[in-house]
Amino acid sequence: MLAVTILGNNSAVPAHSRHPTSQVVQTRTEKFLIDCGEGTQMQMSALKIRSLKINHIFISHLHGDHYFGLIGLLTTMGLNGRKNELNIYSPTLLKDIIELQFKAADAHLPYHLHFHELKNEEELFQDKNITIRCFRVNHRIECWGFFFREKRNKRHIDPRKVSAYNIPSAAFEKLQNGENYISREDEEIKNELLTTEGEHAASYAYCADTGYFEPIAEKIKDVDLVYHESTYLKDLAEKASSRFHSTSIEAAMIAKKANAKKLLLGHFSSMYESIEEFEKEASEIFENTECAREGVCYLV
Question: In degrees, to the nearest 5, what angle opens at C-alpha 147 toward C-alphas 144 and 152?
Fold first, then answer.
């Protein structure tokens, strides 16, 4: 299972009942927070998402609308009795910023903060269900995207077929891992004759603030769901480029080049009261497009 809940879908300024960027990615066993704009913990409270269940926070870059809510969230976690270590993945300077804020307030957390600096495109985390890696995007300052991929599920044993071939149960684990069966008589029985495909391993890509940047498409190739910023509509393409942001059309082009299955648009400029036109424009290029809406949980 892989699901994405949108907490904030706006850009720099909270407006039109929209909040700055933040979202929660959920697997079978973990909840991960991506970015933490102003109002994140209020949104989590409204949606009944327990912050104490989050052990990993990913901050894409150090523009305020992507992390100004973090110091408040960290403090609240402490006030609520958090004891477990919290991992934060971010550009280098965030550690200094957070430590300075706590030093100025003479505040001490009852849990350990472990900072992981984003320096290279690499795997950041893995457990039995998922791997998470980061990739560079093209923004005015250092900025990162994050790619979540479920680990491929084991193949399913077909009871009738293994019975027909007299396969012992001791061989089932190897069969689930995709291996062929070798009998005592050295007879090889192909795996596909004894098993069926496991469930699809879902994938999700978060493309943080970025200008149009084609290398992203290769980094997220064949992704099931991609969130890509679309700060402006297509008539403001020049403005978008000068500010290292993307338009609805450009986000759709990346999704198409990546052969994604679905596109979520977000990071809307507060100059737009309605976001319906974003979806309309992008759909002309990439049909399966939807505007990311706050409070909605998208199953991947």
Answer: 165
Task: Quote the longest CA-to-CA distance of the chain.
Answer: 74
**∠ Cα 176 179 183 (to 5°):** 110
Q: Is 253 helix (H, G, I), strand (E, B) or coil?
A: helix
8, 39 Cβ separation under 8 angstroms: yes
Contact yes or no for 215/180 (Cβ under 8 A): no
Q: Could you tell me the two tokens for 79? A: 């006030």
pLDDT at 33: 98
Name the band, by pLDDT with cuts 50, 70 and 90, for residue 34: very high
More confident residue, 38 or 201: 38
What's the confidence (pLDDT) of residue 251?
Answer: 98
| Structural element, H or E, at residue 282 | helix 276-283
Per the listing, tokens 């505007």 go with 291
| Both structure tokens of 271 | 């100059």
Establish how many alpha carbons lie within 13 A of residue 193's alpha carbon, considering only the half-sphere containing its beta carbon. Answer: 12
Question: Would you please indicate which residues are annotated as catalytic (active-site) residues?
Answer: 65
Token pair for 269: 């400029």
How much is the pTM?
Answer: 0.89
Q: 92-110, pLDDT tens digit by residue? A: 999 999 999 999 999 999 9
Helix (H, G, I), strand (E, B) or coil at 174: helix
Distance CA 56, CA 72 (A): 16
Q: What is the pLDDT of residue 1?
A: 85
Nearest-angstrom CA–CA distance, 257 and 145: 17
Contact 224, 260 (CB under 8 A): yes
Which are the contacts of 198, defined by CB distance < 8 A and separation ≥ 6?
Answer: 152, 153, 154, 155, 156
3-state secondary structure of 288: coil
Which pLDDT value is given to residue 169? 85
